[in-house]
């Protein structure tokens, strides 16, 4: 069976999929056997020098997978100790426990030795509250002994829905999960707590692995059909004219980075709208990028009469928050797509309702907050610990009628219609000054070419990561902007 690596399924949806598989005739105990076998195989493959497997089993089906793994590891010749709590009666886990003839010791009946590998089968999808003191002490003991951990489905203590620990949590070296990744495997800090991920097929039919609330890993199929294409009939104006609103003399570099990235993302023309006092300084740095002196709302209004201007980036290095609000109002009224980033976002801290009202109708606002900017704009959402990053981005997208690119190592792209994607494979060296300006420019470049906002958001984040990989570790934002690759030809 081909696994859909792009679909993220919440633990509760996974429970329904599991039930549907069993209802359709799949043997539930067979699924547990397959799950346990994958776990045992992972241990054997990654720890060939293992001296002893310490399998920690919880009361539910996660523990059931552990009982199977313990039996198979033992049959492979690995010394195994099995610790845990007795399984709930009557289910698959109880059967797996009965079929394993290793004694089930108490949870604390284990003293770390060199060569131990822990198999963490305490809690998976069923975790619904913080682990109690006994589990907390065990997690501490494993951590202090520096024993490697292979977690079954999820590191025990981690919420598969939010990616946040509910209390004490294992740090796994490997996590073996089944049928589909869960949001907690890709959202931070969950992704880091999982270690290396292994997604395994246990025989649940692909047609059943669906979700009524899908979240995707960011991947090409989400946006490929909407990417701008190039053909012989085109001229530069038909490829869009992106305008980046530039700030004062001292901070013009951010707008230049965005402009260069927009050009490389395929906009036919890119102009900086520069305050008069900064025009000469900018001119010294520009070649392909054009410039227009725009000092106030009146000159901007006049320029907006040119309906070939097809997209705007407002915020990088912009500085003047009041002016940013005024400019944003004019851009909104122009009916064209706008990317708000950095100072363009801070300008609306405490005023998100005003921002939402500016952009009603078709979705043409994109906002690109990092964690701090998100917190400034949406303090209530940011402070609600029951919400995942995906939930927060979706709620923000609805409040603003915008596509939200909520940045970080686990960038979430969300639309007001509820569509959401998580990008978790960007290189960590994107965390460098000016990198966000480049992302805003890519997004502006794609929107200026007429790409719909959600797809443009997903594509921008992917192109940004690709550019980072191409530029390599140690890159600067200038090199990142220069590494943005223009789009495929048709
Ligand atoms: N999806 C699939 O297709 C397949 C899934 N499989 C496996 O099944 C796993 C899900 O199994 P599961 O539903 O039995 O949940 P699991 O995580 O074992 O928790 C069990 C119980 O623990 C309890 N509990 C919760 N939190 C607690 C806490 N902090 N401290 C103490 N107790 C706590 C709570 O019970 P309660 O005490 O509330 O009665 C809960 O119900 C999944 O992760 C995967 O490994 C495979 O077998 C193959 C097929
Ligand atoms: N650890 C990380 N791994 C991958 N990408 C990251 C990481 N940290 C930051 N990024 C990305 O780098 C960019 C930084 O943007 P931002 O914080 O706005 O920086 P700046 O304001 O300096 O341009 C964002 O696209 C973000 O998603
Ligand atoms: K686990």
TrEMBL record:
Where, in this chain's numbering, is AMP bound? 407-411, 436
Per the UniProt entry, the signal peptide is none
What biological processes does GO assign it?
A: metabolite repair; nicotinamide nucleotide metabolic process
* Keyword DNA damage applies: no
Which residues of this UniProt protein bind (6S)-NADPHX? Answer: 61-65, 124-130, 153, 254, 317, 370, 437
Indicate the family of this protein. Answer: Belongs to the NnrE/AIBP family.
Query: What is the annotated quaternary arrangement, including any partners?
Result: Homotetramer.
Q: What does this protein do?
A: Bifunctional enzyme that catalyzes the epimerization of the S- and R-forms of NAD(P)HX and the dehydration of the S-form of NAD(P)HX at the expense of ADP, which is converted to AMP. This allows the repair of both epimers of NAD(P)HX, a damaged form of NAD(P)H that is a result of enzymatic or heat-dependent hydration. Catalyzes the dehydration of the S-form of NAD(P)HX at the expense of ADP, which is converted to AMP. Together with NAD(P)HX epimerase, which catalyzes the epimerization of the S- and R-forms, the enzyme allows the repair of both epimers of NAD(P)HX, a damaged form of NAD(P)H that is a result of enzymatic or heat-dependent hydration.
Name the chain's protein: Bifunctional NAD(P)H-hydrate repair enzyme
Provenance organism? Hoeflea phototrophica (strain DSM 17068 / NCIMB 14078 / DFL-43)
